[in-house]
Amino acid sequence: MNDMQWAPIGSEPLPPPLPPTRVDFTGDRSAFRKMVTKGAMLELVTFGFYRFWLVTDIRRHLWTDTSIDGDAAEYTGRGKELLIGFLFALAILVPIYLAYFLVGIEFERWQGFASTPLFISFYAFGQFAIFRARRYRLTRTVWRGVRFWMDGSGWAYSFRAMLWGLLVFLTLGLALPWREASLERYKMRHTHYGDLRGDFAADGWTFFKRGWWLWLLSPIAIVIFPLAPFFYAEFKAREWRWWLDGIRIGGVSLSSKLPHDAFYGLYWKVIGWWTLLSAIFGAYLGGATMLVVTLSGVPAEQAFGPDNAAKSIPMLVMMVIGYFALALALNIVMRVYLQRDLWAKVLETVEVHNIGAAADVRGSGELASALGEGFADGLDVAGF
Amino acid sequence: MSEVSTEIPAQSARPTIFFDGVSSRRRQVTLALGQALEIAEEGGAPVSWAYADIRRADSPAGILRLACTSAPSLARLEIRDAALAADVTVRCMHLDEHQTSRRGVVKIVGWSVAAAGSIVCVVLFGVPLAADRLAPLVPKPIERRIGDASEVQVKTIFGRNVCEDPSGKAAFVKLVNRLRDAAGLDDDSVTAGVLPTSVPNAFALPGGKVYVLRGLLDKAENPDEIAGILAHELGHLKHYDNMRGLIYNGGTSFLIGLLFGDVTGSSAVIFASRSVVEASYSREAEAAADTFAIEIMHKLGRSPKPAAELMFRITGKEGGGLTSILASHPLTEDRLARMTREDRPPSGPPLLTDKEWQALKGICGSGKI
Question: Which residues in chain A have their CB less than 8 angstroms from residue B112's CB?
Fold first, then answer.
């Protein structure tokens, strides 16, 4: 059989396949930590507006220190683009919110709570935003002087996501692997690197076989909640590995040896930090209460009794400061562990096969606007 | 420099790579530092970059990656040799001109603080002003539509059928009409009803709909108690509090969401700050409705105190401290204290006869729920 298939190709000997190339991540962890710490503080004093620049800096750091076949990638997006995209998205979202409000009233008049399904339209919009935000990020991703880009329609994607979402809902989550496979296929088939076209070779069945028992066991995690991080880490690792195994760009393919227990440490570290920081916050609140009570000289019950709102103001200020400090610290922890460390952990398991196919690719594709990122920001949806 | 002789093999060991921005081909090149930066590939066309156009691009440690504003935008030159990189760096005077500098960051902070300041001012002064001015201008049909919508919701929660016992209804209508006339509201502006649920409460909806829940009637001991509460709700109607609240809440949640970057306003910070801001606005409106109720009751020659006593019987003593900042109503004990100050011996006739009062209490039928 094989001989017959080979015959028409010709007599020229096939070159031996090149060994797979590795992906190296050389990012300095303490530099990243300093960057997100500074960024989190700036986010605080700018009421969050600095997030556009911080997100850009994080991506620049992660992209630049990731090298494939010895050449580092580059992120060319800028914070200002994100800010402008956000403002444009606002200009579009405001009338939509108003329309939503008015349509909602008409629905409610007809039947109580009939407008609840209108939320679904926001879900659809969120999916659109995820697609368009991905397009923005890809067109800012450059490797060897050629950028990635995307075509396809955000609304077509959103429509698929909605139908699959409904199916996942009806099957109580069992259809999730097929949903992810289908959506990923849509995204990857509309992904390009120069004149190479992407594809997604993994299927839902493979993912299902790797994770079905997690679905079965998930009710246990609700009862015994310390198990939940294990389950989630297990699920995420399997999902990542399945996803990486499926990625194709032209003749280039990826594979990953990500172990199933790769994320246990990461999630437990985050939980550990979270517990520690919450305990510190609790102790701080206790200390602040004591301080207020001793300084104002009124007993605790009276301080929190009626007619004492004025005296509780210093307490409130201290609480707000404590809350912001807690949020800031948690932000840093999340970014260091769940963005930087996870990125490094995943990349060290990735192998790139047949990178030679990307040795001489012609650049093409236009830059996409940051509007999609703006929508994603405005609607509070995240995508990767 | 004495190292010159060792530098040349080092340079060949750490090659300089050029990507022309058109194709992904990795070109090994040699550099000549003349009038401009000359990039020469063996067998390829030479490229020359003017020093003034060269900018630094992001690169991993140990590599100097350059771009050129007059070349294709993605063309990159990667210099891996430290000495050569230093040589090129000193010649490029605008190398870091495009980077966000410390001044750039200060500018971002400055503009953000200005933007936040203006949003806070609008939330504190602009939106309440807009709500006060716009609410009376909302056309009646629109207000009525909003009212219809919320009425459907309310009835879904508290029961579909308004209590209809004939003699009870007659008493209720008599009470509402007396209060309405005293309040100076138009004849067609108020529709009132009793809903069959054990929750003790009363509320006004947009479009002049006032509802008393049966639980409140059960707890009430005399007509003045119910009258005071109804007068309070009529105060909300008179002051357009529903529409004001709608405009105000919509406006603040949008603006605060804008400030923290989540227009849907779902995250914790937004929820918390919104609650505090909106509650203070609502407390003001409640206090104003109380003032109105006191006026009406005085006008009818009755005391406003029984209504506060009824509220106190239902809520008991409410907490203070932090919860008072988040409360949408003034504390019941404060309201009772205020109504007690306004207490006057009755100078007008009772609002309902004993018989009417008993009928009103039985408006939902006795054994139905």
Answer: 45-47, 49-50
**Is residue B198 situated within a structural domain?**
yes
A142 touches chain B (CB under 8 A): yes
pLDDT tens, residue by residue, B171-206: 999 999 989 888 888 877 788 888 888 888 888 888
Nearest CA in chain B to A315: B322
Cα torsion B274, B277, B280, B285 to 10°: value is: -80
What are A319's two structure tokens? Answer: 């609480």
What CA–CA distances, in Å, run from A315 to A293, A321, B277?
9, 10, 18
**Do the Cβ atoms of A94 and B65 come within 8 Å?**
no
A47 touches chain B (CB under 8 A): yes
pLDDT category, B3, cuts 50, 70, 90?
Answer: very low
Domain count, chain B: 2
Residues B202 and B275 in one domain: yes
Q: Which among A146, A285, A301, A326 is the top mutation candidate for probing chain B, defined by the most B β-carbons within 10 Å of its own β-carbon? A: A146
CB contacts under 8 A, B 239-268 vs A, are 250, 254, 258-264, 266-267
Please list every residue in chain A whose beta carbon sits closer than 8 Å to the beta carbon of residue B105.
42, 53
User: B182 and B298 share a domain?
Assistant: yes
**A145 CB within 8 Å of a chain B CB:** yes
Which residues from A are below 8 Å from B26, CB to CB? Answer: 71, 144, 359
DSSP-derived 3-state class of residue B340: helix
Global ipTM: 0.78
Nearest to A94 by CA among A368, A375, A370: A375
Q: What is the distance of C-alpha A262 from the center of its chain?
A: 18
Question: Chain B partners of A110 at a C-beta cutoff of 8 Å?
Answer: 152
Q: Which of A153, A150, A154 is nearest to A192 (CA)?
A: A150
Nearest to B261 among A67, A75, A377 (CB): A377
Cα B153 to Cα B157: distance, rounded to the nearest angstrom = 6
Contact B149 A309 (CB under 8 A): no
In tens, the pLDDT along B214-269 reads 888 888 888 888 898 899 888 888 888 888 888 888 788 777 776 665 544 445 55
Structure tokens at B269: 């910070």
A303 interfaces chain B, CB cutoff of 8 Å? yes
What residues form DSSP beta bridges with B255? none
Same domain, B46 and B155: no
Residue B43 placed within a domain:
yes
Residue B25's domain comprises 16-91
Backbone angles phi, psi at B17, to 5 degrees: -115, 140
pTM metric for this prediction: 0.76
Q: How far apart are CA A151 and CA B61, in angstroms?
A: 34
Let me know the angle formed at the C-alpha of B28 by B26 and B31, rounded to the nearest 5 degrees: 130
Mean pLDDT for chain B overall: 82
In-domain check, residue B31: yes
